[in-house]
Design a protein that fits this description.
This protein has one domain: MFS general substrate transporter like domains (Growth Hormone, Chain: A). The protein has 19 helices and no strands.
């Protein structure tokens, strides 16, 4: 069913257009940087303070995995309901409230740290709460800038968004280390809370329209459309367009292959690369920061390239699949390298592929999905694409405690490269940007579904008779 037949209306980009996006992007970039400071500081605390000795490798792996899963589960499995919610209510207000809520969670972690009560067991629910809040914020944000950015500027805006995430990775290790050295770990959380409040204040002065949905009015039976029906609508939009499912399949594999990095990288530095970085005069914090900073530089470089270039204007699917193949091959070298500088170089290349791939994928979805459906569709898209993220993190928590972490990452990189290479011969995926063909597929599946529903209703009527 099209958006028009569903009784929904679509708003075009706001008059301020790209200028409004720039203000939104800048304020949220500062907030993302603050959050990156917090997560880097927590990683250092867990690896160096809570589980410092080599004999604690299994406990360290399990704790990192538990925190990773605690963040991943709400982000993935609550996404469809968060997306349906953002399609119903004012997206600007959602972003303001979630920024303030995240500031509150950050201050709670600060209190536990200062009072000496912080431990993995109470950090896990706080990380899960952070993820719960963040999923509402991110989906409201993702569905908002298509409302203010002209279509021809979307690839550039998506590239800037990817650059924002990568730049935070560059700045956060050095920033967190400097803040900890000058003012202590507690100050990191103060800075993070301030950035959340600042982002909320900037939003107060921006005009960010939300689509108007006539289909939410009460029907003849007096019942309003349910949140679950919104989730179903988002799911059917994707299921009726098989090429979109194939695009998501590449991300299912990619997320399973890359998710373990959050668990593996601190352990790879602590154990697998220790012989090399100690001879070069690095500390653990310095070696970990080198990998994180290298990854950030790669992400910024990739984001800058796609922002300046604007991405592919046609056959954008190649802008997704080819970078994923390169990322997989690079991950093999990353895992097998025993040299800190080679590993850092591979981290740079891997991260450079991410903004290129994400910008092209996001543009495909934005152009193929009506704005008033994007919250619902994007959230279901997120559930499908990231369903392997918690699984990959949990598996890494087991594997990193019993096998070589680098070999484990290399195997996953090989799986990713081979799977994505095979997609270059997938005729469904390669036609994903043919909008008319996609809609023909959707109409055909809708007709089949209605016929099956009619046949089922007829059987029920016969049995009642």
């Amino acid at each position: 069913m099209s958006a028009e037949t569903a009784g929904q209306t679509t708003a075009g980009p706001a008059p301020a257009g790209f200028r409004t996006f720039l203000a939104l992007w800048a304020s949220q970039s500062v907030s993302v940087f603050g959050t990156a400071l917090t997560f880097f500081a927590l990683t250092i605390w867990i690896t160096q303070v809570r589980f410092p000795s080599p004999e604690q490798q299994p406990q360290l792996a399990a704790s990192l995995a538990a925190l990773g899963v605690a963040f991943a589960l709400p982000a993935v499995f609550l996404a469809p309901f968060a997306g349906a919610w953002t399609d119903r209510y004012d997206r600007k207000r959602i972003m303001i409230l979630t920024d303030i809520a995240n500031a509150g969670v950050t201050l709670t972690i600060l209190f536990l740290l200062v009072e000496g009560f912080l431990d993995v067991w109470n950090l896990i629910p706080l990380i899960a709460l952070t993820s719960f809040i963040a999923v509402f914020h991110q989906l409201a944000f993702d569905a908002s800038y298509v409302m203010i950015v002209p279509k021809e500027q979307l690839p550039r805006a998506n590239g800037m968004m990817q650059t924002m995430w990568a730049l935070s990775t560059i700045l956060s290790p050095a920033g967190a280390a400097a803040i900890i050295a000058l003012s202590g770990t507690a100050m990191v959380f103060v800075v993070d809370a301030v950035t959340f409040v600042g982002a909320a204040v900037v939003l107060l002065f921006l005009r960010i329209p939300s689509p108007k949905r006539a289909d939410l009015a009460r029907g003849a039976a007096g019942r309003a459309k349910s949140l679950l029906s919104d989730v179903k609508e988002g799911a059917l939009y994707i299921l009726d367009r098989r090429p979109l499912l194939w695009l998501l399949a590449t991300f299912i594999v990619a997320n399973f292959a890359v998710a373990p990095l959050g668990v593996i990288q601190p352990m790879l530095v602590k154990y697998g690369l220790a012989a090399d970085w100690t001879t070069r005069g690095f500390s653990y914090e310095g070696a970990l920061a080198l990998l994180a900073t290298s990854a950030g530089i790669g992400g910024v470089a990739g984001g800058f390239v796609v922002s300046a270039w604007g991405g592919l204007k046609r056959k954008r699917v190649y802008g997704v699949v080819v970078p994923l193949i390169l990322a997989g091959v690079t991950q093999i070298v990353y895992g097998l390298s025993g040299v800190i500088f080679l590993t850092a170089g591979m981290a740079l290349v891997m991260s450079a592929m991410v903004p290129v791939m994400n910008a092209h994928s996001q543009t495909i979805w934005q152009l193929q999905t009506p704005p008033e459906l994007q919250g619902r569709v994007f959230s279901v898209r997120r559930l499908i694409a990231q369903c392997t993220w918690p699984l990959g993190t949990a598996v890494a928590g087991w594997a990193a405690g019993v096998v070589d972490p680098g070999v484990f990452m290399a195997i996953l990189g090989g799986v990713l490269a081979v799977f994505c290479a095979l997609q270059l011969a997938n005729p469904y995926l390669l036609r994903i940007e043919d909008r008319d063909w996609l809609e023909d597929l959707a109409r055909a599946r809708g007709t089949v579904r209605e016929a099956r529903a009619g046949a089922a209703a007829g059987r029920d009527a016969g049995s009642d008779g």
